[in-house]
């Protein structure tokens, strides 16, 4: 395998793949993995996933043998998580040499509310479940399903944010979730030295922040805009992510921010 | 142990560093006439905090001790009784499970009942916490186990802090202090400790956001150091490691000193081992 040119013959699992940054990652990955690779696309929205699957099947990569699987699942539910692991195991074959897990699925939470408004524990639980727990348990499950073995590279990516490092007023859930997630993957990097762990910050918070600075009243609609992927500088940011992966000389576990590249 | 004096300086505004009064050390600062809430108060560091704090509260203050064990809380209350009676401090034991919303709501309810009294300081110490599974990353495949851990260690202190903020809205003349009992592992990743590190990192961020939002609330993330608690006993048993532990009282006293001196920037983390 030529290093720096492609990501090998890979099984690549991408959460939140149906739109926004996850969708962009799927498209970019499809161009960087060798024929015979498998993409496992995960999201809750079946229609969007299947549309992406069709698009990729008809793409150049699809025509030379990229397999694209869709798993419509809620990763906050045990059966959702199991479905992803099972499909990944079923899709694996011995000639694959790279497992790539992209923890991208996330939600913004209500960025118009302050700490003092979060008196409802269940609301916070629910947010943490989607944004923190599901990425931890999915990663642990996938690593268990695909243990270290010679000839198999394993890469785990966490889509993080400046918000993992810096507090922003009225963004408590988002910052807390990102800080928690980033730590999960830092611990993982310390614990598993043979694993490549990339905490990649695509720079979404700057477009969020600059928009908020101009019009604080649009905070409420941000969750929707975020979910639709309208706030992310997707292509450019994803291209940089792919380069980091191809170059493969980042420090495992370190916070890699698009603006530092 | 600090001596209690009946006269004291008036409470200082949250963000200004307190001036030390020169060579005479007769200035005994206090925590004012406050409502002080300590979670996880039945054992370990929380219990030591209770023992430190009651000396620093003025007559008319209220101390809420929150933990699951009513028995242990009652014992603690009795240990302090002669002093608290003499100094007119009211002590409430709130025996409840803070991993549940009922527990959080119960605590807020008791605090609300005390809101009728005139107080000049609201002081919340988010101490309750748990170790979680430290056997390694691959044992963390169970959603319920991880959700449950995050609920107790992250959601609960957020909801409790929010609830108490609602009961005692910021106003001028009201000093507001929040302590997050943190850890060096809020900042540093430790292999096999994903749950603990994650929750501590989450809490550190959560309380940092609070500091950004509320200039009238003084927020301190305090890393108490390795203490002689049941949690450390468990850690040493599980890991086979043995290292120096500090007495809870010493770290609790240091925290009180930090709060009285009030020289830290709101939202920062201070470590017992570094002060």
TrEMBL record, chain A:
GO terms for molecular function: sepiapterin reductase (NADP+) activity. Coiled coil: none annotated. Pfam families: adh_short. Its EC number is 1.1.1.153. Keywords: Cytoplasm, NADP, Oxidoreductase. It is found in: Cytoplasm. Gene3D superfamilies: NAD(P)-binding Rossmann-like Domain. It comes from the Eukaryota. InterPro entries: Biopterin_syn/organic_redct (IPR051721), NAD(P)-bd_dom_sf (IPR036291), SDR_fam (IPR002347), Sepiapterin_red (IPR006393). GO terms for biological process: tetrahydrobiopterin biosynthetic process. The keyword Ligase does not apply. GO terms for cellular component: cytoplasm. The keyword Cell wall biogenesis/degradation does not apply. Belongs to the sepiapterin reductase family. Homodimer. This is Sepiapterin reductase. It comes from Lates calcarifer (Barramundi).
UniProtKB/TrEMBL annotation, chain B:
Keywords: Cytoplasm, NADP, Oxidoreductase. Its EC number is 1.1.1.153. Pfam families: adh_short. Coiled coil: none annotated. GO terms for biological process: tetrahydrobiopterin biosynthetic process. The keyword Cytoplasm applies. The keyword Transcription regulation does not apply. GO terms for molecular function: sepiapterin reductase (NADP+) activity. This is Sepiapterin reductase. It comes from Lates calcarifer.
